[in-house]
Amino acid sequence: MTPVSLAHLNEASKADFVAALGDIYEHAPWVADAVAGHRPFATLADLHDAMTAAVRDAPADQGLALINGHPDLAGKAARAGTMTTDSTAEQSGAGLDRLSEQEFAQFHRLNDAYRAKFGIPFIICVRRHSKGSILRHFEHRLHNDATTELDAALTEISRIAALRLDQRVEAADRLKVHGRLSTHVLDTHAGRPASDVLIELLELSAHEESRTLVTARTNQDGRTDQPLIAGRPVPIGRYELRFHIGDYFARLDAALADPPFLGVVPMQLSVAEPEAHYHVPLLATPWSYTTYRGS
Amino acid sequence: MTPVSLAHLNEASKADFVAALGDIYEHAPWVADAVAGHRPFATLADLHDAMTAAVRDAPADQGLALINGHPDLAGKAARAGTMTTDSTAEQSGAGLDRLSEQEFAQFHRLNDAYRAKFGIPFIICVRRHSKGSILRHFEHRLHNDATTELDAALTEISRIAALRLDQRVEAADRLKVHGRLSTHVLDTHAGRPASDVLIELLELSAHEESRTLVTARTNQDGRTDQPLIAGRPVPIGRYELRFHIGDYFARLDAALADPPFLGVVPMQLSVAEPEAHYHVPLLATPWSYTTYRGS
Amino acid sequence: MTPVSLAHLNEASKADFVAALGDIYEHAPWVADAVAGHRPFATLADLHDAMTAAVRDAPADQGLALINGHPDLAGKAARAGTMTTDSTAEQSGAGLDRLSEQEFAQFHRLNDAYRAKFGIPFIICVRRHSKGSILRHFEHRLHNDATTELDAALTEISRIAALRLDQRVEAADRLKVHGRLSTHVLDTHAGRPASDVLIELLELSAHEESRTLVTARTNQDGRTDQPLIAGRPVPIGRYELRFHIGDYFARLDAALADPPFLGVVPMQLSVAEPEAHYHVPLLATPWSYTTYRGS
Amino acid sequence: MTPVSLAHLNEASKADFVAALGDIYEHAPWVADAVAGHRPFATLADLHDAMTAAVRDAPADQGLALINGHPDLAGKAARAGTMTTDSTAEQSGAGLDRLSEQEFAQFHRLNDAYRAKFGIPFIICVRRHSKGSILRHFEHRLHNDATTELDAALTEISRIAALRLDQRVEAADRLKVHGRLSTHVLDTHAGRPASDVLIELLELSAHEESRTLVTARTNQDGRTDQPLIAGRPVPIGRYELRFHIGDYFARLDAALADPPFLGVVPMQLSVAEPEAHYHVPLLATPWSYTTYRGS
């Protein structure tokens, strides 16, 4: 769907406004309808706040209907192809559309247990998670009480809405939904940025092969031209950076052992805050390196 | 075979001396015979030097016979079970007794090509190499000329003899055949050695799954009670150390992210000098680490 | 003198142009006069190139007169107060107006020796140097031959002119005369930027007390709001950064020894390229630190 | 005084025993007398424990007399030359025999205030402290109550006795009175120990010039042949290590800036536990370094 500007939305007819934002909340155009009268919104954050408030202030049964309007994760609607466009994209982004038999069974079991205990579907903003993290939270949240989970469902719905709004509406401000993963390679052997170093970013998984997300080379400043991940949440999960510094030092004719002591430097990190900036520099010589969470 | 002391060998009858050391050189008891008259040897190094000199000074056809007495790597004799006890142990130590079909074919092809070009078997001191390193050297040495390879064969035979002598003979001195791989974990978050950290050492391979060689935990000084590898050459090859520092810091109740930023720290290194000491410390906090070739 | 825009200079009368830039070259308004006809200059770099070329292409005696128009360093003109405004500011910036008796005698001796050998005054772009560096270069250049020194004099005059132009003329481009010294403090104990850390920058001297140039505190990102040195050359010389990380960690209630193992972290560096960017991060815990030339 | 063996003391007459150890406690041979009957002592630690117990168990007035038998720090007895040999050596070791006028006045004031408040002299085991640390503790302890200070006096007396016993008596065990300060320089540019690096150890002071304690060069393993401090407590205080790595890398013909980015690496540390092992390695390239409290 083509992005629309906040200015345009502020001046649109109520019908057009609701048409444009009716699917920000799953099967709940009434949320857009409820805030249309509060226009104009000075910022996108104001719009999101108003929609979140409308949901929180709605009658209990309407809130519950909103919650129940969400599909199961990797559930019947997904298989039947009857999910909304947004939900389909979100679930496939986290890999929920290509589960192994075992994972499929695990989601099935969790969905049933969750519905049996709480009477609502399990809701989580999947774009903030890797598949492993979704499963870990799913297992964990099953132990909560009903009040906690009702609250969690609304919190996650607000996060889903924020990400949808951020994609749908152009405004001077951006919602705080963007994390970042970046790196910087310093050659402390020669005292300068390390350029043309091959870097791979992999997503690690407990049970599967790791998956390469990005391959890039450092530029003259030792950075990649684009952050490895940006403009979206960095999914909660485990990652591996692989820095090919052996090839780099070999190209420089540094005095190396044969084979060189260091070839590929692997660095494993976990992301806990999807909206944070993870900057992970590497300071390297042919014989040593330092890496850390930078800023 | 029970080790025997150098003092005992110095005083033994010539027949007993040759019986004890006749298989230091493959199918060539004449080497022991040739040096028996030079006894007593003050050191094990003197004995090894004398044997090496006897081989170098032997008539050309005798030297060639010595070379030709060596079995192919993963060759006919290995399959037929007709190799000497030493050769059998040495080849299986490098994994040559459990090759895949593809590797087996590769050795077969290389053995044939080498014999076709040089008229002798390819000789390499396998205890100084991983399987990948053997194949790399095999391919590389095929490009040499005959003189270089005759010389290489004698050098490798001298290395094989040194390792056999080192196991067979007890003396005040040791031959320089022992490398070492060790580590040391410092907790720079609390300013003390990191104790009870799980460490794994894996051998990496280009085409196969990595193989766990050692699992150990650090002691109160942040070291393992025994070096990870010691008392033998560290085979030329690629290795991965895996330091489980996430668990360590979690036990200390350090303020960590959830999941912790650093869980397992992998460190990959290549060994180029089997007789060298590879000391690889790790300085770690929950958010950073430094590793290097130490001493 | 108020800066003037390049656009204005391009449209000014020749007389006004020469009036504005007549003192870019010491006592040599003829340089400005020589390039006035080449207007308009698209960039400040073009203007500087043209002036440099005019000097290089001038008759030998005119070039020599330009060289001889420069005052001695800490010489008679300086004492008599008869130097140009620019020279006075430049020499005092490097501390040449507050020499000890001994230094004064040293400059006197060097000036005499240089004039005796080469028949011209010693010229160096003092804004690119600390006092110690000036003396070191002075001693060193005395050993050169006359051709080398004539060439060095013109190179230094071109550098002096570039710095004067950079201050005098506003343009879209800047001349490459600006170096930078900056820092960044990372708290690798807590995995975040270290804010509110006191940092001192001192200039070190072989024979005198060190001199504090800057005192600053890090902001939320672990950087100082302004680079420690920027907008000018970083004088060739020795410096010390002093990071007060003991106070920082004490404020955080980190578990520290009493007194803390690390209080002030001193870091000494030498600057060799005044127009380069010296970025010197510090990664620190209460028990360890890493520092390096970054980018 | 020549050391005497524990075995000899165990078998000596009571008179000889008391003669040998009568001055372990200041002007209090009764302590040696009190424990003579408990012989034989299996270890030096047993002997020290017995003497400490004898003091703790003595009647209150005898304990008080022991305390009052100690001289003031830098006090009247010191000036008059009437202190015991041990006290004289101990006070001069901490520099209390060469105070500035101001420091002298400060000690005078503190001694008076302490006696006025507590009625006893201020006792501290000066061999565990630098002058600055003594003054800091002196000021601090003035704020305590009388019970705390009586207890502190006995603790310090036990420490003084342990150090005297450790010097006087030879035994298989040593008392835990020995700290250590050592270093290790690794060249992470070339991946090996840095040999022949000049290292200075200075004691820092708040008000005075720093004092060079040790100058040494690293050996082939990157260590100094002897620890910088060993065989005694490392006095509580501030120190600076100065590593001359610029000269080291220049000798290796590493590609350096002119002047080199790093010349001398200063490292300041504070000692809080005189009996601990302070190991402070340096990992250096011409452009970076890491230092930390090691083990």
Describe the structure.
The structure is a homotetramer of 295-residue chains. Chain A is of the alpha+beta class and 295 residues long. Chain A is built from eleven helices and eleven strands. In chain A, the strands form three sheets. In chain A, strands 3, 4, 7, 10 and 11 form a five-stranded mixed sheet that branches. In chain A, helix 4 packs antiparallel against helix 10 (146-168). Chain A is globular, with a radius of gyration of 23 Å. The two termini of chain A are 35 Å apart. The model of chain A has no long low-confidence stretch (mean pLDDT 95). Chain A binds chain B through residues 236, 238, 240, 257-270, 272-273, 287-293, and chain B through 236, 238, 240, 257-270, 272-273, 287-293. Strand 11 (288-292) of chain C pairs antiparallel with strand 11 (288-292) of chain D.
Give the helices and strands, then pairings.
The structure is a homotetramer of 295-residue chains.
Chain A: E1 4-5, H1 6-11, H2 14-21, H3 30-35, H4 44-57, H5 60-68, H6 76-80, H7 85-93, H8 101-118, H9 131-141, H10 146-168, E2 169-170, E3 179-187, E4 192-193, E5 198-204, E6 211-217, E7 229-232, E8 237-243, H11 245-251, E9 265-271, E10 277-285, E11 288-292
